[in-house]
């Protein structure tokens, strides 16, 4: 599974947008207000880096696969996921193409990025959550406030999304469930925002001797 880490490129506001305050009382308990503030905060972030732990639970097999690595995102359309354990893998979005490279298999999957409308990276890279998802409830999570979302448009790859936020509206975890009941949960830490990432950091050159699958 390539995480459903695929992105529809859209324009990111260049100016800094004031972040609405989530105050004590009704607004603090209102998921819509929290998500609006999360979107507003996201539009002030040009790029970020973080560490991640991904737990993938197969709906068919019922077992979990845990992987760790680092992620870089430059909005609106560039991402780099470097998996370190248990196997080295690379997922790159360079603004026009996606690459998923597994050195052990000596294969790289290449897909056109432009015009793709799948879900996960919209949350990471667009900063327009409420334009694509509707909040339908909450669940308990040890990390923070967990809000449950469904896509506004039909998405064959995603039936449900959950975001876990802290009091400062930082994304602590992201969950995605597909039509087969499989779930991928990404937990983030070590965020660094607006670090000045370069486009060149998201370039992928196919290594010699590696098979290209498109």
CATH superfamily: Lipoprotein localisation LolA/LolB/LppX
Mean pLDDT: 82
Order of helices and strands: HHEEEEEEHHEEEEEE
Helix coverage percent: 10-25%
Shape annotation:
globular
Whole-Å distance between the termini?
A: 15 Å
Poorly predicted sequence stretches spanning 5 or more consecutive residues? 1-27
Under the CATH scheme, the architecture is: Clam
Order of the strands making up the biggest sheet: 7-8-9-10-11-1-2-3-4-5-6-12
- Domain tally: 1
Largest sheet: 12 strands, mixed
CATH C-level class: Mainly Beta
Number of strands: 12
CATH topology: outer membrane lipoprotein receptor (LolB), chain A
Structure description:
By secondary structure, the chain is mostly beta strands. Helix content is 13%, strand content 42%. The chain has one domain (26-213): outer membrane lipoprotein receptor (LolB), chain A (Clam).
């Amino acid at each position: 599974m390539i995480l459903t880490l695929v992105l529809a490129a859209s324009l990111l506001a260049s100016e800094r947008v004031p972040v609405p305050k989530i105050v004590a009382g009704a607004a603090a308990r209102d998921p819509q207000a929290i998500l609006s503030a999360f979107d507003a905060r996201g539009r002030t972030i040009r790029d970020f880096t973080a560490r991640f732990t991904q737990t993938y639970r197969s709906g068919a097999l019922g077992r979990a696969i845990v992987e760790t690595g680092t992620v870089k995102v430059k909005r609106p359309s560039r991402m780099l996921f470097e998996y370190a354990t248990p196997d080295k893998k690379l997922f790159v979005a360079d603004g026009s193409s996606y690459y998923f490279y597994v050195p052990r298999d000596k294969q790289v999957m290449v897909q056109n990025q432009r015009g793709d409308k799948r879900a996960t990276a919209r949350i990471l890279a667009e900063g327009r959550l409420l334009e694509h998802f509707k909040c339908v409830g909450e669940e308990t999570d040890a990390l923070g406030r967990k809000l449950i979302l469904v896509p506004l448009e039909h998405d064959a790859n995603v039936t449900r999304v959950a975001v876990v936020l802290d009091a400062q509206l930082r994304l602590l975890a992201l969950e995605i469930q597909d039509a087969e009941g499989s779930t991928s949960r990404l937990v983030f830490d070590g965020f660094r925002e607006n670090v000045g990432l370069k486009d060149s950091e998201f370039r992928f050159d196919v290594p010699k001797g590696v098979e290209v699958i498109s």
